[in-house]
Design brief:
single chain, 386 residues, mainly alpha, globular
Length: 386
């Protein structure tokens, strides 16, 4: 029964991945069509040739600092369990590589499986930390929009996306505020549902006692008796593993309700977004685009909102079209905006993906094995399920 359930879940995940790829391909092709129709290729080439390489190098260095700030924030969200900053940095770059070359944001799988294996964390706890990242980033994005509102008129297409983001943040804040109070009832309800679906898990049968050693053969009087091999521990049922996963997720969410942790997460999030704004401003200088100071802020918010829609790997097409739309609000020509989009895409996606490729070489076999065998059995955070 458990094997059939796992096979059905795998088939469903496969169908969802293919559906996401299909929808993303349609969206990306449409965005690429709109980009190509609105630009002049020669003008784009001239803008790229005239860019200042020194500012581009400085922008990539600053983007790397933003990534390190993100990893440090992630390490804080994984407290109280000890983790290694360099190992998490390697894992993040690997996840970025997978998001760049594979559909359906599969890099998140690496961000869950690799720290679960290398740092011994409960996968549910890691999933909870990534969910908190999304809520915190969306909250800060809304704050930036409030800051920008007096200085510029918000386009209609941005207001529509803003409504969905506000709802997401409200749901996230309510979940964070009530996670400690609702944790026990949620786990109890989940255990009740699983008992109805799978039945009560049967206790593991005690290991059979070892058979007494046989008397030595007269033909080989010096050979020692063979010692019995220890019994292998039984694997937990799927229902127990699911309860442990959800319990660890709730434990991760509860960490942010502590004032010290919340303040540290806020500081590193602010630093990460500030460096992202600086990167956008540096590229504006590199291409000699004289726009208002708010353009770099506005562009960051638009890309955070728009790149959440399904698209081809590396947000191909969608990313570039969003940059053209955002800079068009400030009167930037579509060809110059596309040149900016190509350089920003290189710095934000392509070059970090090359770092991710170098980071993936030592653990490529491990990643393939983890994806094939499923979630590892956690060590740290396992007490959350008890």
């Amino acid at each position: 029964m458990e094997s059939l359930t796992n096979d059905a879940s795998a088939d469903k995940l496969s169908r969802n991945a293919w559906l996401s790829l299909l929808v993303g391909a349609v969206v990306s092709v449409l965005a690429l069509f709109l980009v190509v129709r609105s630009v002049d290729g020669n003008a784009v080439a001239r803008a790229l040739a005239a860019s200042h390489l020194g500012w581009l190098a400085l922008a990539f260095f600053t983007q790397t600092l933003a990534t390190l700030a993100l990893v440090r924030r992630w390490q804080i969200l994984l407290r109280p369990y000890p983790t290694h900053f360099l190992k998490l940095t390697q894992i993040y770059f690997i996840a970025h590589l997978l998001n760049t070359i594979l559909p359906a944001k599969l890099g998140i799988v690496a961000r869950v499986l690799l720290p679960s294996e290398s740092e011994g964390l409960n996968p549910g706890f890691v999933i909870g930390s990534i969910a908190i990242e999304k809520v915190v980033d969306t909250l800060l994005m809304l704050v930036l929009l409030v800051v920008l509102a007096p200085f510029m008129p918000l386009p209609e297409w941005l207001r529509d996306s803003l409504v969905a983001s506000v709802l997401l943040v409200l749901v996230g804040l309510i979940a964070l505020a009530s996670v400690r109070r609702l944790r026990a009832p949620l786990l109890s309800a989940l255990a009740h549902i699983e008992t109805r679906l799978f039945g009560a898990p049967s206790p593991p049968s005690p290991p059979s006692p070892p058979s007494p050693p046989s008397s030595p053969s007269p033909l080989s009087p010096l050979s020692p008796p063979s010692s019995p091999s220890p019994p292998s521990p039984p694997s937990p049922p799927s229902s127990l593993r699911l309860i442990a996963l959800v319990s660890a997720m709730l434990e991760s969410l509860a960490q942010l309700t502590q004032r010290r942790e919340a303040f540290a997460v806020f500081v590193w999030t602010l630093l990460m977004w500030s460096t992202g704004i600086v990167v956008n401003q540096m590229l504006l200088i590199a291409l000699d685009l004289p726009v208002d100071w708010s353009a770099a802020w506005f562009l960051l918010v638009v890309l955070q909102l728009g790149t959440r829609v399904p698209a081809l790997p590396a947000n191909l097409g969608v990313f570039h079209y969003l940059v053209i739309l955002a800079l068009g609000v400030y009167g930037v020509d579509a060809s110059a905006a596309l040149a900016y989009a190509l350089l920003l895409h290189l710095i934000v996606f392509i070059l970090p993906a090359l770092i991710g490729a170098a980071c993936a070489l030592p653990v490529s076999a491990q990643l393939v094995r983890l994806v094939s065998n499923g979630l590892p059995r956690p060590v740290k955070g396992e007490h959350a399920a008890q």
